[in-house]
Amino acid sequence: xxxxxxxxxxxxxxxxxxxxxxxxxxxxxxxxxxxxxxxxxxxxxxxxxxxxxxxxxxxxxxxxxxxxxxxxxxxxxxxxxxxxxxxxxxxxxxxxxxxxxxxxxxxxxxxxxxxxxxxxxxxxxxxxxxxxxxxxxxxxxxxxxxxxxxxxxxxxxxxxxxxxxxxxxxxxxxxxxxxxxxxxxxxxxxxxxxxxxxxxxxxxxxxxxxxxxxxxxxxxxxxxxxxxxxxxxxxxxxxxxxxxxxxxxxxxxxxxxxxxxxxxxxxxxxxxxxxxxxxxxx
Amino acid sequence: xxxxxxxxxxxxxxxxxxxxxxxxxxxxxxxxxxxxxxxxxxxxxxxxxxxxxxxxxxxxxxxxxxxxxxxxxxxxxxxxxxxxxxxxxxxxxxxxxxxxxxxxxxxxxxxxxxxxxxxxxxxxxxxxxxxxxxxxxxxxxxxxxxxxxxxxxxxxxxxxxxxxxxxxxxxxxxxxxxxxxxxxxxxxxxxxxxxxxxxxxxxxxxxxxxxxxxxxxxxxxxxxxxxxxxxxxxxxxxxxxxxxxxxxxxxxxxxxxxxxxxxxxxxxxxxxxxxxxxxxxx
Lengths: 282, 282
Fold this sequence. Notes:
- The structure is a homodimer.
- Chain A is α/β, with parallel strands linked by helices.
- The first copy, chain A, is built from eleven helices and nine strands.
- In chain A, strands 3-2-1-4-5-6 form a six-stranded parallel sheet, with helices on both faces.
- In chain A, helix 5 links the parallel strand 5 and strand 6.
- At the A-B interface, helix 7, helix 8, helix 9, helix 10 and helix 11 of A face helix 7, helix 8, helix 9, helix 10 and helix 11 of B.
């Protein structure tokens, strides 16, 4: 017995594809419908068993769905949600995987009114610097955290069911307000990306041959798609700017200790960073 | 037939231990002597086949050596080299694995005079955030780059033989001046470490549960030993401060674009970082 008869996924990339694979592998959905813009890519996803059916027609794709997961870039989530609510059944649950939550949740609630009770914002803290359905994995969410951000406007039943869906694909679920979520990921995800990008850009090509694993690790996320990340930064602008200030504060302290040849302070600051890094492991 | 009868390694940690293992596995040395301060650790390294013999007496350990590799923290390389040159045969080659080169090479040449013709500074761009001989691997140097920094004071024959040694353990060898080396690694290694440390320190413990692979990658090197890194930063202070300025320039440009909501510029800067990161791969 499947928990859902039909799950529709809008945007069959790394995350959407992995949700499809996980929903099929774990028998969460009888049928997974993939909705996209590129017929060739959708056909390839069907051929690889990532989705059962595919369509470029969103209205048709969501019509019979019990759950729609919006996996478009953050800039398109709100517009897509509006279309989904227009064409889906009133009982259909809608969620997304956007990396920012406040702008999306506010816009959906403003535009959809009562209907938005069926919408629960989600953000799986899973992914890869590689994109595309060809890298989709059924186990992408196993042991990872998915933040869900229901509000007062959300139906409690919808919250519970979306939470169960993420549990079913293997994730741990954490519930935060959209504001709490955005402030946290500004520090844990958006700030590292911006710092990694600046670090990569600050490296002259002439010394790239002298980079080793340290540089490769520290800059890895800078390989992410520039357009997608520009949209994420823009959608969480205030929190990212605050996180940058926080980072500056710590980097300036290190610089000052080095400038003043204050070895005790320099070692103390490095030990502070190490302690926090060690708390996470790997 | 081994290239060396005896290779002595001062400091049997991750690098020293891996050099020992590689020299034994690849039959570069008939006998590898490990010199350290801790009898128990040295005995463990002998038991694990990382070194053939062990001693806490540096004078005795280097007496018969044809090549001494100094693998102490950067702060102790010069003093150790002085002791090695005092007790080793005049034909004995001496090299090190310090992450900075100018301070070490200048000090050795100043203190050792003519004898320093047998000294060739080295820096293997290999390692791990884990330390200790227990993580030593015979293949640590395979496909990695080792920078050597001979000067006018170095005997050409010594340069050639040290270069051959690193080739023999599997590394590619790049020759730079000590100044060129220090400027390059300030950008490729020391700057990433300082940035990663600030990033880790800027992350409140309350949001650590919301970190994912991006944060883990970007901050990984911050787990390095605080004392060792304080010494590296101090030994390459001017170049690290210059690298920090370079980084600031790029981070400020990103911040300005975000602050001014200049999406075109923000995306352009992110694309610039991505392009450089993509040039390295993995």
